[in-house]
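Exercise: predict the fold of this chain.
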Amino acid sequence: MALILVVDDEPGIREMLRAALARDGHRVTTASSGEEALVRLRDEGCDLLLTDLAMPGMDGVELLRRVQEIAPDVPSIVITAYGSKETAIEAMRHGAVNYLEKPFDIEEMRLHVRRALRHRELRDENRRLRARIAAEREIIGHSQAIARVREMVTRIAPTDSTVLVTGESGTGKEVIARAIHAASPRRDAPFVGINCAAIPSELLESELFGHVRGAFTGADRARSGLLEAARGGTLFLDEIGDMPPEMQAKLLRVLQERKVRRVGGDQEIPVDVRVIAATHRDLPTLVREGRFREDLYYRIHVIRIDVPPLRERREDLPEFVRHFLRRHAERMGRRIERIEPSFLEALARHDWPGNVRELENVIERAVALAPGDALVPETLPPEIIEGSAGQRELPPGSFDLERHLEEERRRYMEAALRACGGVQTRAAERLGMTFRSFRYFAKKYGLATGAGVPAGDRT
């Protein structure tokens, strides 16, 4: 059941509400003031806030304002004295979903609570669905390796947890970060990225935190930093493993206190951002070597996503090729309608040390050099053609090349059918084949039994 925070300065009302809600199976925590409620909210969180409006010190309206800053997803129900509807309406402008007038009926209160919790449940379900759709749209590939990444993105996007994305250079770590942002409640706010390895250490602090006028030579006007620019959204810290040690300490303080101080300034500015960090480095090793702060590592390592290298998800190659083909053909004004199977076979034999970034460059080159309406092996860089050829050594004695190529084609078709759930039209598209050709070879190779799927189209 739900965790409900009850806030009221009268002990009798707190106890009455606690007992009534506990009978419905809810866990209930109480606070006697707005200040105490904020402490409990930060330490324990809650699924629903039930608060009086008229309290000494921080009143209910101010409490709601503060709650919206630190936990905007928490719904609230306010309790108001008879004849104070104007105040209740003001509270609803600050996030309250309903109000109760004193004296109130317990059954009415329980009904309001059930409705508020059901509303939150439906909202969370919608967010999870939007997150899944966004992850499907943003992340290319359907291999098991990338399916695990997509599932993780779907699960964590609706939260506000800090994420560490790891993987080799060129695997698409920023794509994963953008997918998390696009699937999150912060999607309408800015996504701001910075490469920590590309900016000199003396400039990185000003880029992140901003500076006041006169903070250093050339600072002729005040300037906000990227943390302020990303307010309400997501800050992506790429290659955080290359961040200078002195900056690591300052970043840790910001992540702990959620406040930033501009270079040369003395004012602390609240910042509401979600942080996603990425690195190709082995951070635990850097921690052991004293080159990365251990406390910062654990601060950013709340949730970790490992992006697999392209060589471990070769079955995604055709989908990547089609994606980059559309992008660059449209940009260049080229009409490319086919991808030769031999083109894909050459790509599949390459190890892709530069990962997806290298593949995109190769496809851009192929589109530019394509002699007609098809991508053919002759448009590939020499290192891929020669490298893939060099990986094949002739066996001793005679060798039946035609039979070998037929077997290679059959294995690719089987893999495509498995990846596409047995749907031949999709499998043909994954391999860049026409459906007619795919159907012919599926019947020829007996894939109805060999692949465990019907040879006919199952769309």
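Check your answer against the key: Residues 449-459 have pLDDT under 50 and may be disordered.
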